[in-house]
Amino acid sequence: MKIVGLSGGIATGKSTFAAELRTLGFPVIDSDDIAKLVVKKIVDMPLLFETGFYHFTSPRLLVAAGEGMQRRRLMARDGLSEEAADVRVSSQMPLSAKRRLADIVVENDGDVEELRQSARTVGGLLQRHRWLHIWFFSPLGLGLVAAALFSLR
Asked: Can you tell me where the transmembrane regions are (predicted)?
């Protein structure tokens, strides 16, 4: 089974994006939900890029937004001042660094429907690649690849 990593900065829309992937039938494991379950045990849940867990995922998705949009969403969502929002954003790994590590970057400076459409588009790409991955690593697929390689010798 392929594990796809999804990340994003605070208030970039990654939860909305993940919810749309769920509606398309993709199983989504939300580390925030897991962290809430285990926080009583003082277990720290890793962040995809910050901890290096991205090495175990492919492809790596990033939902990003411009700094102004990210700040406005955070202020509206959490009722923060501009200064408090800036402190929260600056406490995270910069999106520019995450962009360099991501395979697919979804720019989310639009509305929710645009983000949902982006999720459907990416979901379609993942679905097509999933079938290719399943076929390629099937016994028939591996046999055909082995035969092709053998014929090149």
From this structure: 132-152
Would you state the structure tokens that stand for residue 102, as one six-digit string?
């991501």
User: What's the confidence (pLDDT) of residue 43?
Assistant: 33
Domains present along the chain, CATH in parentheses: 5-152 (3.40.50.300)
Is the pLDDT higher at 144 or at 70? 70
Q: Which residue has the tokens 């796809």?
A: 4
pLDDT tens, 133-152? Answer: 554 455 555 565 566 656 66
DSSP the chain: ----EEEE-TTSSHHHHHHHHHHTT-----HHHHHHHHGGGTPPPPPTTTSSGGGG-SSEEEEE--HHHHHHHHHHHHT--HHHHHHHHHTSPPHHHHHHH-SEEEE--S-HHHHHHHHHHHHHHHHHHHHHHHHHTSHHHHHHHHHHHHHH-
Classify burial at 112, counting beta carbons within 10 Å of its beta carbon; exposed 0-12, middle 13-18, buried 19 or more.
exposed
Are 118 and 65 contacting, i.e. CB atoms less than 8 angstroms apart?
A: no
